[in-house]
Specification:
By secondary structure, this protein is of the alpha+beta class. It is built from seven helices and four strands.
């Protein structure tokens, strides 16, 4: 069955990519997990491209942060089933129910599930770092 317009499935977005987020056996920082999650985008069709354009805009950092929060919306994504038993990996995120705004679900070094809370400013910073590292999206992909 074909996807409906605008409909995406987790396998369309993430596939087995979560396995590639494991860099090495060294302990990850909380921010490393956030970097792993933002690389996947918002989960909405063309959301990653819209976020890329928000960062490229000449809006203030505060305006960009507000727009990114709006682009992610309320909800989240969970891909734990693809990562069961893989230590130190991100397994999902939530954008509601948090004092700070953005919760990353991880499996720690013992494969126990933990939640890490981030502000939307930190989310914007992580996206910027991934764009600078040319891991988020590159401009010639935007032209295609």
């Amino acid at each position: 069955m074909d996807n409906l317009p605008g409909q995406l499935f987790l396998t369309d977005i993430f596939g087995s990519e979560c396995f590639k987020s494991i860099k090495d056996k060294s302990k990850k920082t909380d921010f490393d997990y956030l970097l792993d999650v933002v690389i996947h985008g918002t989960g909405f069709q063309n959301g990653k491209e819209r976020v890329f354009e928000i960062i490229r805009s000449n809006k203030t950092k505060a305006e960009q942060t507000k727009l990114i929060k709006s682009e992610y919306g309320i909800g989240g994504s969970y891909w734990r089933c693809n990562c069961i038993g893989i230590p130190e990996t991100a397994i999902g995120y939530q954008t509601f129910g948090s004092k700070k705004g953005f919760i990353v679900n991880i499996q720690d070094s013992d494969c126990e599930e933990k939640k890490l809370e981030f502000t939307w400013t930190e989310v914007r910073e992580a996206i910027c770092k991934q764009i600078e590292a040319r891991k988020y999206i590159v401009e010639n992909k935007m032209a295609a």
